[in-house]
Every structure is written in structure tokens, then in C-alpha cells.
Specification:
The protein is an alpha+beta fold and about 525 residues long. It has an 8-stranded antiparallel beta sheet with strand order 1-2-4-3-7-8-6-5. The relative contact order is 0.06.
Length: about 525
């Protein structure tokens, strides 16, 4: 059990939050004395409860721990949880009067979070699939927060609890000062938490059903989260709710939808399409309607799925300034990494050059997206970590990094020499895990492009070397989806040559060139 050596320290809200984080991490229970001491300090805490990003920092760390559900139950029993998140007050011990729901609404939410954490320990085949999916999530804490809030509106009058839950979600997002992108993700999950169950009531192998559902979701990361949310939500209804048959149906719908999103990744936007997102964009900036239309025309539909409205408007504005400055760059810090957005006209070796420049600066690219519109304007986004804290410790270096990248793009700087100097100065580190290089081509995945997937050992300058070989073989990168998992790089690129798929001879030549570059032994 957990005892507190200095009970007076519990008057500090940070100490109180750390206590429950420790509980969620270790799986221990509070002693009766500790519970009593917590109850004593709550009245003082109620006058000025913690809120904002500091509260969210502790809450997301607690939600990510293996025994998070037990910590939440204890916080709820001691009245601390509704004090921190008043949006949950209405569902405490709330009974849903039917023969299907076995648990109260608050316990249902805690169980849903618990079932996701238990996936890692499960030995069943279908649970292992979902466990692997959970490991792939970039921000699992957002999923756990959505599960905490998804039924918060059930205490409100009326039949549609989702609308009430969304109001509580907005209130909670304000309280936690969530980043706008994170807020939208949580809000989407709460709003859509019944969508996948509805799609499962139809034929999960029906292409029309899959297409309809996949297009509603739009983004692969959201699809993963929604799949896991549906799994946890069903499983937490009662012990018999998630049957092997239902688990298999859920997985089949996920796989079919993921495949659909991958196949349609390079389908192009047309501004005369009757699209709700396009209509929303025009309503927000009616004066800039033509500017937005010309920018979006010909961009892949995946671009709109991956970027919010504010990003699209900012990109369109940057594209409009290309006449004054042919290289438009935006750099910002987002959560644990930096985000660099480049907008310029397409040219050979562009993606490779920027990748090389970032590597030369000691940056580690963890994710990247590359898109181009019908007019040849490129929108490339690079997410990277700063290995040597150069940008964190030297604010003027932000501008110098952008100037260096612009110089590489315009040919005023030699990226190859820059990268050689960086690699020469770094000692090669021993590899903890060795990843065998895999190179695969797929012509069936897209109607317009040849898909290239490369799995290989991550290393400094990898993306530069790989994309340079692609350009040398006369291939154009239509879309680049770059991911890094530990020491493994997973790069998916949609390629064309002469506005068509790659022929078998070009594929063979590119395969050999990449093999020699990435795996010379």
C-alpha cells in the first residue's frame, strides 16, 4: 500500500497528482490513512483546483500507465476526479437501465481504459492484433481521454447523449488548455465513437459500406484510434459483449478501411467537387476563394485529411507569396518535436535536398509528408527532433536553419558537402537492433502511382540517400509518408515517371540502386 511520510505535502496539488501517477504506474492501493489525508485537503483544493496544460501533463502521464483505471477509480471514490474534471460529475454511479449494460457509466469508462491496457498481456490472437495497433499510436493519451469523456453526456436529458458529451468535451478541452489539433482529435473520437459499431451492423466486406465508413474517418491515425475505441467500448459493456466473431468483424472492417485509405491516397482534389471541407474553407475566407481554389486544385485528397482548416488557409497564403519569395518556410514547435512546412515550386531532388539539410543540422526526421498540386506547387511537411537541442538553446538558430534550407533548395549551398561534414564529425553508434532492409513495389494499390515501401535501419541522412536515388532514376515523388519506429524506418512513397506508373524495368533499376545504397554489404 501507499503511505505518505509527510501528509502536509498533500496540500500541494502537484504532490497529489504525482501520488496518483505513482499509483497508476505501480498498481498499488492507497492506505486508509492516506485516503483520509487526501479527503482532508480536498476542500482547500476545491477553491483553486489545478487546470490548464500543467493538469493535462500529469493527467496524460497517468492515463498512459498500466494501472490507470485503478488510479481513476480511487480518484473518483475520493471525489478528486470530479473536482479536477467537473464534466464527469453527472455519470458518477449512473445506472443505464437496460439488460445489456452491466456497469454504471463511470465504471464503464474506467473498464474501457483498463481493457486497452490489458491488451499487452493478452494471449488471444484477436487481442494481439489490437495490442499491436495500440503500440502504433502516436498519442494514446488522447484516446484514453476520449474514452473518459465519450459517455459523459448520458446524464443529460434527451436521447442523444453524443451531443451532450461533445459539450462536456469542449469544456474539458478548455479546462486542460488542449492544443487545437489534440482538441479536434478528442472531439472527433467522442463524436464518432458509435460510427464503427454502426458500420459493423452491415456487411463488413461490402465495398460500398467500407468506402462510406473510410471516407467519414479520412485519416489513418484516426482510424486506428476509432477501432481501438470501439473495441474497448464494446468490451466494457459486459463480459460477453465482445465475442470472437465480433472482434474479427471489427478487425476486418479496420483492415478494409485502412486499405481503402491507402489506395485512395493519391486521388486528386477538384475544387468543383461537392465537398463539405471545401465549402467550409470558402465560408471562412470568402474573399480568398479563388486563391484557395487555385492552391487546392490537384492536391491529393489525403492532404485535406491530414491538415486542419487553419493549416490549409495558412498554406494557401504562403503559396500566394511565392511571387515575392520562391521558397516559403514555416517552423514551429509541436509537442515533442518541430514541424517544418515548405511551400515552393516542384523541382528535381527537392525532397531529398531538404531531408539532407535537416540531417546535416543534426535533426532526426521522425515523420514527413510530401504533396503537390496541379500547378506544380509542393507542400512538404517534416516533423523532426533536435538531437543536440540546437534550436531550444539558441533562438537565432531558428532563422539560420530556415536560411540554410532555402540556400540548399535554390542551389546556393551544397547539401552533399554539408551532410558529409556532419557524418564525419559523428561517431558511429552501436546498433541495439539490426533491421534487415525490405524493398517492395505495388502497382495495384493506386490507380495512378506505383507504391514503394522501404523498411530499413534508421540512420542519419537515410531519407536524403534514398530520395536521391529515386530522383536519379527519373522518378517523381507524388506522396511521401515517412515514419520512424525505434530504429526502424518505414517509408511509403507514391512514385510516377512521366505522369505514369513505373515500368518493370525502371522498378528493377530502382530496386537495385536502393539495395546498393541502403544495404551495400
Amino acid at each position: 500500500m501507499i503511505f505518505v511520510q509527510k501528509p502536509d505535502s498533500l496540500q500541494d496539488p502537484e504532490m497529489l497528482l504525482r501520488l496518483f501517477h505513482f499509483m497508476a504506474q505501480q498498481g498499488l492501493k492507497l492506505s486508509t490513512t492516506t485516503e483520509y489525508k487526501i479527503e482532508q485537503v480536498l476542500p482547500a483544493l476545491a477553491s483553486t483546483p489545478p487546470r490548464g496544460s500543467e493538469l493535462w501533463l500529469y493527467l496524460q502521464e497517468t492515463l498512459a500507465q498500466p494501472h490507470a483505471a485503478d488510479a481513476l477509480r480511487s480518484m473518483n471514490a475520493l471525489r478528486l476526479l470530479p473536482l479536477l474534471l467537473p464534466e464527469l460529475k453527472g455519470i458518477e454511479a449512473l445506472v443505464v437501465r437496460d439488460f445489456y449494460h452491466r456497469y454504471t457509466v463511470d465504471e464503464h469508462s474506467f473498464l474501457a481504459i483498463e481493457h486497452l491496457h490489458r491488451l499487452k498481456e493478452s494471449k488471444t490472437e484477436w487481442d494481439r492484433r489490437f495490442a499491436d495497433l495500440l503500440e502504433e499510436l502516436e498519442q494514446p493519451a488522447l484516446l484514453y481521454l476520449a474514452l473518459l469523456l465519450h459517455d459523459s453526456g448520458k446524464a443529460a436529458p434527451g436521447d442523444n447523449h453524443v451531443e451532450a458529451s461533445l459539450q462536456f468535451t469542449d469544456s474539458c478541452a478548455d479546462r486542460l488548455d488542449l492544443d487545437p489539433v489534440d482538441r479536434e482529435t478528442v472531439r472527433y473520437l467522442v463524436a464518432s465513437h458509435l460510427e464503427m459499431s454502426a458500420a459493423m451492423r452491415r456487411d463488413v466486406f461490402d465495398p460500398a459500406n467500407v468506402k462510406s465508413f473510410a471516407e467519414k474517418v479520412g485519416v489513418p491515425e484516426r482510424l486506428k484510434m476509432l477501432c481501438l475505441m470501439t473495441y474497448a467500448d464494446i468490451k466494457a459493456v459486459n463480459p460477453e459483449a465482445m465475442t470472437p466473431w465480433k472482434a474479427d468483424n471489427l478487425w476486418q472492417l479496420y483492415i478494409a478501411s485502412a486499405n481503402y485509405l491507402n489506395r485512395s491516397a493519391d486521388e486528386r482534389l477538384h475544387t468543383d467537387d461537392n465537398d463539405s471541407t471545401l465549402a467550409h474553407l470558402r465560408s471562412l475566407a470568402p474573399v480568398a476563394g479563388k486563391k484557395i481554389n487555385s492552391f487546392l486544385e490537384g492536391l491529393p485528397q489525403r492532404y485535406l485529411r491530414m491538415h486542419g482548416v487553419s493549416d490549409v488557409l495558412a498554406h494557401a497564403e504562403m503559396a500566394a507569396r511565392l511571387g515575392n519569395d520562391p521558397v516559403q518556410l514555416s517552423l514551429k514547435q509541436v509537442r515533442h518535436w518541430y514541424e517544418l512546412t515548405l511551400i515552393t515550386t516542384d523541382r528535381p531532388f527537392l525532397f531529398a535536398s531538404v531531408s539532407g539539410a535537416l540531417a546535416a543540422w543534426g535533426m532526426n526526421i521522425v515523420k514527413a509528408n510530401a504533396f503537390s498540386n496541379g500547378a506544380g506547387v509542393v507542400v512538404d511537411t517534416f516533423f523532426f527532433t533536435d538531437r543536440f537541442r540546437t534550436l531550444e538553446l539558441n533562438i537565432p538558430e531558428w532563422e539560420r536553419l530556415k536560411q540554410s534550407i532555402a540556400a540548399v533548395i535554390t542551389g546556393k549551398a551544397d547539401v552533399s558537402r554539408m551532410l558529409q561534414d556532419r557524418l564525419r564529425s559523428e561517431k558511429s553508434s552501436s546498433l541495439k537492433v539490426k533491421i534487415a532492409t525490405q524493398i517492395e513495389f505495388d502497382d495495384a494499390c493506386s490507380a495512378h502511382s506505383t507504391l514503394l515501401q522501404v523498411l530499413t535501419q534508421d540512420r542519419p541522412g537515410l531519407l536524403y540517400k534514398m530520395c536521391s536515388q529515386i530522383s536519379k532514376q527519373g522518378c517523381n515523388i507524388e506522396i511521401a509518408l515517412i515514419e520512424t519506429e525505434g530504429q526502424m524506418a518505414i517509408d511509403v512513397l507514391y512514385l510516377t515517371a512521366g505522369a505514369a506508373k513505373l515500368g518493370s524495368a525502371r522498378q528493377a533499376a530502382l530496386h537495385q540502386a536502393l539495395r546498393e545504397e541502403l544495404d551495400p554489404k
